[in-house]
Amino acid sequence: MPFRYLSLAILSCFSLIACSSAPIDPSELAGKLRDKLTTDIKSDGLKLFSYKARLVDEKSTMNDTERPFPHEARIRNMQDPREQRRAMQDLQDSLEIWGRQVDLGLIKTLEMTGYCREGYIELSRIIEPGRGEIRGECQEGATNADKQKFMSY
């Protein structure tokens, strides 16, 4: 009988390890993203950009009467420590997925527009639940064609 419980415990551990190490696929968020690339070409040819993305879901389209009250969030936060750790881990996992989606959106947008043809240097990054912003500087200088195509107003 104890051998049966031991084998069941080992099988359960392997199942948990397999589930927790599954790769995260950022394409799960495809179609739920609104993004914007803002370009800024300086007079000396320096090419800067700001890429902003936000997640579009049913919560963001709710009107104020449908949103939960702040005290409800505080009540949910007063749970036992194990629940708090689990909630924090879930938040970190979702931020990792969201960060990958923002990266993927930026890469695809830069490819489609041809703005940073030789890559970019990341200047700052903000990743929060439901929104992200990456500011950067292109590694190449602006050509005359770039200045005409990406003229900022």
Describe what this molecule looks like in 3D.
The chain has 153 residues and is α+β, with helices and mostly antiparallel strands. Helix content is 43%, strand content 23%. The protein has 4 helices and 4 strands. The protein has helices at 2-20, 70-77, 81-113, 144-149; strands spanning 33-41, 47-55, 120-128, 131-138. Strand 1 (33-41) and strand 2 form a beta hairpin. The longest helix has 33 residues, at 81-113. It is elongated and about 60 Å long. The model is unreliable at 1-24 (pLDDT under 50).
Quick overview:
This protein is α+β, with helices and mostly antiparallel strands. The chain has helices at 2-20, 70-77, 81-113, 144-149, and strands spanning 33-41, 47-55, 120-128, 131-138.
The number of distinct β-strands equals 4
In DSSP terms (H or I, runs of 4 or more residues), the helix count works out at 4
Q: How much of the sequence is in beta strands?
A: 15-25%
Structural class: alpha+beta
As laid out across the biggest beta sheet, the strand order is 1-2-4-3
Could you list the spans in which at least 5 consecutive residues all have pLDDT below 50?
Answer: 1-24
Mean pLDDT: 76
Largest sheet: 4 strands, antiparallel
**Cα-to-Cα separation, first versus last residue:** 77 Å
Elements, N to C (H/E): HEEHHEEH
Shape: elongated
- Fraction of residues in H or I helices: 40-55%
Radius of gyration: 22 Å
